[in-house]
C-alpha cells in the first residue's frame, strides 16, 4: 500500500493562518513585525529562497526588507551591516541567507546577529538554549519537521528516530528536538558504517543529506515514517527515466518542465513507508511557515509579550 503523504503545503497554510490573530494584536499596538533578509551576491537558488520568504511576509501583512550587498563584501562590512540592523528598533528578525561568499567568515557574521532577532536560530545562544531545552528561537527547518509530525498525529515518544545528516542547520538541531520529544535518536552521517542497516531500524527516518534519491527502499522498514528534507534539482532525462520508472505521472511532469525537484529519498520509497513527506510540498513550505512564526514571536518577545510569544510561537516550534 502506498504511504500516507504528509502535506507540508496544507500544514504551512494552517500555521500561517493561526498567526493572523497575533499579527492583528501587534498591529493594534502599532507594531508591524519586520523581517530583514541579507542576500549577498547572486546565487540563483538563494535568490529564489529569499523571494519566497519575502512573499510569505507580504501575504501575512508583515514588513520585509531585502538587503543585497555585493558579492565582494568583506566579513567586516557584513558584520557592520548586521550590527546596524540589530540597532534598528523597527527590525524584528534578521536573516542572513547562506551560503556566504568564500572570503567571508560565516560564523563571525552569524555571531553578530542579536539573538533576540535571530529568526533562523543559528546564534550559539539560541543553539545552547535548544540543546538545554529552554524557550528560544528554533532553526526553521527542524522546527518545521516537528510541527509536521505533530500536526499529522505522529508522536516521536518512545520511537527510534534515525536522522541522516549532521549539519548545524538541519540534522543536529533536529536530533535534539526529537530527543526532547522523547524519541531515541541516532544521528548518522557520511562516516556511518552500513547506513542502510542503521536506517532500517528507524520508526522515523529523516533524510537531510543533499544526495539525490539516495535513500532507497532498502533503507526503510515497512511502515516507517520517512521525512525527506533534501531539495535537489534534476535535469538529466536519463536519470529522470531511471528514478521515475515506476512513476509515469512524475516522469511526464519532468518532460514538460525539463527538470524536477527531487529529495534525498528515492520515489519508490512511497511503496514501503507508512508515511512520507513529498518533495516538493513537504518540508520546504514548513521552513517558511516557521520563519514567519519566529518573526512574529521575535516581535512579541522584544515588546515584552514574552510569555505569550512562548506559548503561541516559540514553544510551538519545539
Ligand atoms: P549539508 O551539506 O550541510 O550537510 C549534509 C549532511 O549529510 C552532512 O552532515 C553529511 O555528513 C551528511 N551526508 C552527506 N552524504 C552522506 C552519505 N552519503 N551518507 C550519510 N550521510 C551523508 O546539508 P544541509 O544544509 O543539512 O542540507 C541537507 C539537504 O536539505 C540539502 O538537500 C538541502 O538543500 C536541504 N534543505 C532543505 C531545506 C528545506 O526547507 N526543505 C532547508 C535546508 C536544507
Structure description:
- There is one protein chain.
- With 318 residues, the protein is an alpha/beta fold.
- The chain is built from twelve helices and eleven strands.
- The strands form three sheets. A six-stranded parallel beta sheet has the order 1-11-8-7-5-6.
- Helix 6 (140-151) crosses helix 7 (171-180).
- The longest helix is centred in the first third of the chain and has 21 residues, at 8-28.
- The model has no long low-confidence stretch (mean pLDDT 95).
- Nicotinamide-adenine-dinucleotide is lined by residues 141, 164-167, 169-171, 188-190, 192, 195, 208-211, 229-232, 283-284, 287.
Strand order of the largest sheet: 1-11-8-7-5-6
Largest sheet: 6 strands, parallel
By secondary-structure content and strand pairing, the structural class works out as alpha/beta
Indicate the CATH topology of the largest domain. Rossmann fold
Q: Which architecture of the largest domain per CATH?
A: 3-Layer(aba) Sandwich
What is bound: which ligands?
Answer: nicotinamide-adenine-dinucleotide
Radius of gyration: 20 Å
- Elements, N to C (H/E): EHEHEHEHHHEHEHEEEHHEEHH
**How confident is the prediction overall: mean pLDDT?**
95
How many separate structural domains?
A: 2
Shape: globular
Please report the distance between the alpha carbons of the first and last residues: 32 Å
Relative helix content = 40-55%
Beta-strand level of the residues, as a percent range? 5-15%
Number of helices: 12
> By CATH's scheme, which homologous superfamily of the largest domain applies?
NAD(P)-binding Rossmann-like Domain
Low-pLDDT residue intervals, each spanning 5 or more residues: none
Total beta strands: 11
CATH class annotation of the largest domain: Alpha Beta
Amino acid at each position: 500500500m502506498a504511504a500516507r503523504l504528509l502535506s507540508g503545503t496544507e500544514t504551512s497554510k494552517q500555521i500561517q493562518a493561526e498567526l493572523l490573530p497575533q499579527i492583528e494584536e501587534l498591529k493594534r499596538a502599532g507594531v508591524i513585525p519586520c523581517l530583514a533578509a541579507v542576500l549577498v551576491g547572486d546565487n540563483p537558488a538563494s535568490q529564489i529562497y529569499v523571494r519566497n520568504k519575502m512573499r510569505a511576509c507580504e501575504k501575512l501583512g508583515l514588513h520585509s526588507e531585502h538587503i543585497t550587498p555585493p558579492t565582494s563584501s568583506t566579513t567586516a562590512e557584513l558584520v557592520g551591516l548586521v550590527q546596524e540592523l540589530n540597532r534598528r528598533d523597527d527590525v524584528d528578525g534578521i536573516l542572513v541567507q547562506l551560503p556566504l561568499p568564500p572570503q567571508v567568515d560565516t560564523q563571525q557574521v552569524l555571531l553578530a546577529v542579536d539573538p533576540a532577532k535571530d529568526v533562523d536560530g543559528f546564534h550559539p545562544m539560541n543553539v545552547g538554549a535548544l540543546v538545554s531545552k529552554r524557550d528560544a528561537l528554533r532553526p526553521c527547518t527542524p522546527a518545521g519537521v516537528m510541527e509536521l509530525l505533530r500536526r499529522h498525529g505522529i508522536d516521536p515518544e518512545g520511537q527510534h528516530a534515525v536522522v541522516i545528516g549532521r549539519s548545524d542547520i538541519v540534522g543536529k538541531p533536529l536530533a535534539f528536538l526529537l530527543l526532547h520529544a522523547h524519541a531515541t535518536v541516532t544521528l548518522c552521517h557520511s562516516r556511518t558504517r552500513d547506513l542502510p542497516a542503521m536506517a532500517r531500524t528507524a520508526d522515523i527516518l529523516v533524510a537531510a543529506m543533499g544526495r539525490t534519491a539516495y535513500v532507497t527502499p532498502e533503507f526503510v522498514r515497512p511502515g516507517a515514517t520517512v521525512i525527506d528534507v533534501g531539495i535537489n534539482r534534476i535535469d538529466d532525462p536519463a536519470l529522470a527515466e531511471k528514478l521515475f520508472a515506476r512513476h509515469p505521472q512524475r516522469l511526464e511532469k519532468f518532460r514538460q518542465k525539463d527538470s524536477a525537484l527531487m529529495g534525498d529519498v528515492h520515489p519508490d520509497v512511497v511503496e514501503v513507508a507508512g508515511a512520507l513527506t513529498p518533495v516538493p510540498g513537504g518540508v520546504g513550505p514548513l521552513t517558511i511557515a516557521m520563519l514567519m512564526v519566529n518573526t512574529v514571536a521575535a516581535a512579541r518577545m522584544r515588546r515584552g509579550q514574552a510569555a505569550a510569544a512562548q506559548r503561541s510561537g516559540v514553544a510551538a516550534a519545539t
